[in-house]
C-alpha cells in the first residue's frame, strides 16, 4: 500500500514537473514577444514553433530530473539539496537544448526567450517543490502521511536514530517506543519501553506500525533473526542499522554488492559512481579543450616571455602522485632560473626563493604558471577541480604524519580545489588542507565544482608564492 502510494505520488510529481516546464516556456515566450519589457518587435519564429519544442524538452528534462534524484522519497531528501539538483538538471537541460538547436541549424529561436525559460524553469520548479514540501509537512502535523515505527534496541544506536527522527519532523516518522530485553518497562528519553523481543508478536498486534527499525549490536544475531521472522510473520517491513560506527565514524558509508554478497564501503565517494565519473570527465575534456583553443594566444605569449627572460626550457616537468597513487609528470611554465643549483624535491618554494626569475615571480603570483596543466587534464592525469597533487617525497612523509592523508588519491588531482579556494595553498597547514580535500571527495557534486570554479578567481592572488 505504501509503495503504491509512493508510485502515485511520483506520477503526480512527473505531471507537475511537465506542467512547470511547459509553463516556464510559455511564460518566457509571453515575456519576450508580448509583454512591454521587450520593445524591438522581433519575432523570427511563430508561436507554434516554440510550443513544438516542448515535444523534445519535456522528455529530456524529466529524464534529467530522474537522473539527478528529484523523484526520491521526500522523507530522505533535504530541500537545499533538492534545489541544487534542480539547478544542475536545468543547466544540463538547457545546454542539451542549445546543442541540438545548433546541430540542427535552428538558429532563429530567440536566445533571450531560451534564457528566460532557463531562469523561470528553475524558479518555478523550486517554488513547486517547496510548496509540495510545505503541504506534506502540514499534512504530517495533522496526522496524515505519517509512518509509525518501533525501534528494537534502546542502547546508544537506537537512541541516536530516535534523536535524528525526533529532531526532524520533515521525515514524517512517529516513534511508538522501544523494544529492548535489558530495560524495564518505563520511559527512555521520553519514549516508552514497550517490552522485550520475546513479546514482539503481542507488541506488533497492539501497535499498528509501518516499519520496525532494528538497532541491536552485531553480536545479537539470533535476536535480530527472531525479530525479523516475527515482523515478516506480521507482514511488517524491517530495516537494520549496521553497528559499524567503530569502522565508519567520521565518514559516509555506502552499500554495495558483489554477486549477491552485500558489502559496506566505509567511505562514500560520489565519483566512484559511473554516471558521476562520466559527467566530470566529459566536462574536463570539454572545458580544458576549449580553454586550450581559446587561449592559445596566451600560451604563445607566456612561452615567449619565459624564454626571453631566462635561458632554459619553457615547460618545467615534475613528478607528482595522482589518482590511485600513480605517479605522473605535471606541467608548468618554468618560473625558476637554471643557473642556480636545484634544492631538490624536499623543500617548499618560499616567497623570497632566489631561484625565481622576475617574470617567474609574476606568473607564480597570478598562477599563470599552472595553465599548462590543462594538457594534464586532457591526458587524464588530472581534473580541473580536485585535491592538489603532491611530490612523492612529501606523500611518503605526510602519510605517516597526517591522518587519512592518502584518501585524497581516490580521485584525480586538480588544477584548483576546495582547499585552495579556502586559503589552504602553498606553505600552509597540511591538516586543514587534507580536511578540505576529504570534504570535497565525500561531498562532490557538480554544484560544488561550479562553486569552486568561480571562487578560484577570488583566491588566485592569495597565499601564492
Automatic annotation (TrEMBL):
NCBIfam families: EPS_sugtrans, WcaJ_sugtrans. Pfam families: Bac_transf (PF02397), CoA_binding_3 (PF13727). The keyword Transmembrane applies. This is Bacterial sugar transferase domain-containing protein. Its main location: membrane. It is a multi-pass membrane protein. Belongs to the bacterial sugar transferase family. It comes from the Bacteria. It comes from Eubacterium callanderi. GO terms for molecular function: phosphotransferase activity, for other substituted phosphate groups. It is found in: Membrane. PANTHER family: COLANIC BIOSYNTHESIS UDP-GLUCOSE LIPID CARRIER TRANSFERASE, UNDECAPRENYL-PHOSPHATE N-ACETYLGALACTOSAMINYL 1-PHOSPHATE TRANSFERASE-RELATED. GO terms for cellular component: membrane. InterPro entries: Bact_transf, EPS_sugar_tfrase, NAD(P)-bd_dom_sf, Undecaprenyl-P_gluc_Ptfrase. Residues 280-461 form the Bacterial sugar transferase domain. Keywords: Membrane, Transferase, Transmembrane, Transmembrane helix. The chain crosses the membrane at residues 7-31, 51-71, 83-103, 109-127, 285-306.
Amino acid at each position: 500500500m505504501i509503495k503504491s502510494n509512493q508510485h502515485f505520488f511520483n506520477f503526480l510529481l512527473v505531471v507537475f514537473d511537465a506542467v512547470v516546464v511547459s509553463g516556464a516556456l510559455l511564460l518566457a515566450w509571453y515575456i519576450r514577444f508580448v509583454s512591454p519589457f521587450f520593445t524591438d518587435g522581433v519575432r523570427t519564429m511563430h508561436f507554434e514553433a516554440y510550443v513544438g519544442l516542448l515535444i523534445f524538452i519535456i522528455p529530456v528534462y524529466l529524464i534529467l530530473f530522474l537522473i539527478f534524484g528529484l523523484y526520491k522519497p521526500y522523507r530522505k531528501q533535504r530541500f537545499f539539496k533538492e534545489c541544487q539538483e534542480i539547478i544542475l538538471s536545468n543547466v544540463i537541460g538547457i545546454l542539451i537544448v542549445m546543442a541540438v538547436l545548433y546541430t540542427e541549424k535552428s538558429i532563429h529561436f530567440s536566445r533571450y526567450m531560451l534564457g528566460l525559460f532557463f531562469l523561470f524553469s528553475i524558479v518555478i520548479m523550486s517554488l513547486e517543490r517547496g510548496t509540495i514540501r510545505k503541504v506534506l509537512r502540514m499534512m504530517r502535523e495533522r496526522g496524515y502521511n505519517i509512518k509509525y515505527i518501533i525501534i528494537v534496541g534502546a542502547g546508544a544506536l537506537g537512541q541516536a536514530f530516535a534523536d535524528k527522527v525526533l529532531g526532524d519532523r520533515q521525515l514524517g516518522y512517529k516513534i511508538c517506543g522501544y523494544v529492548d530485553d535489558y530495560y524495564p518497562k518505563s520511559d527512555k528519553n521520553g519514549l516508552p519501553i514497550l517490552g522485550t523481543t520475546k513479546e514482539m508478536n503481542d507488541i506488533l498486534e497492539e501497535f499498528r506500525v509501518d516499519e520496525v527499525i532494528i538497532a541491536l549490536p552485531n553480536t545479537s544475531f539470533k535476536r535480530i533473526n527472531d525479530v525479523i521472522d516475527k515482523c515478516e510473520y506480521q507482514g511488517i517491513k524491517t530495516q537494520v542499522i549496521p553497528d559499524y560506527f567503530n569502522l565508519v565514524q567520521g565518514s559516509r558509508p555506502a552499500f554495495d554488492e558483489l554477486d549477491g554478497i552485500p558489502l559496506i564501503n566505509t567511505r562514500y565517494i560520489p565519483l566512484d559512481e559511473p554516471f558521476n565519473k562520466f559527467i566530470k570527465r566529459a566536462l574536463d575534456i570539454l572545458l580544458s579543450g576549449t580553454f586550450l583553443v581559446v587561449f592559445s594566444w596566451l600560451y604563445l605569449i607566456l612561452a615567449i616571455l619565459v624564454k626571453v627572460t631566462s635561458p632554459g626550457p619553457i615547460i618545467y616537468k615534475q613528478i607528482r602522485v595522482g589518482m590511485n597513487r600513480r605517479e605522473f609528470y605535471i606541467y608548468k611554465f618554468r618560473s625558476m632560473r637554471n643557473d642556480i643549483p636545484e634544492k631538490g624535491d624536499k623543500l617548499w618554494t618560499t616567497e623570497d626563493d632566489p631561484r625565481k626569475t622576475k617574470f617567474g615571480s609574476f606568473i607564480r603570483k597570478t598562477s599563470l604558471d599552472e595553465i599548462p596543466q590543462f594538457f594534464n587534464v586532457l591526458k587524464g592525469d588530472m581534473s580541473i577541480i580536485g585535491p592538489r597533487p603532491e611530490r612523492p617525497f612529501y606523500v611518503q612523509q605526510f602519510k605517516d604524519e597526517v591522518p587519512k592523508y592518502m584518501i585524497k588519491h581516490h580521485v584525480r588531482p586538480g588544477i584548483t580545489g576546495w582547499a585552495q579556494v579556502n586559503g589552504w595553498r602553498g606553505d600552509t597547514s597540511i591538516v586543514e588542507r587534507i580536511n578540505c580535500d576529504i570534504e570535497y571527495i565525500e561531498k562532490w557534486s557538480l554544484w560544488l565544482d561550479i562553486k569552486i570554479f568561480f571562487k578560484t578567481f577570488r583566491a588566485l592572488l592569495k597565499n601564492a608564492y
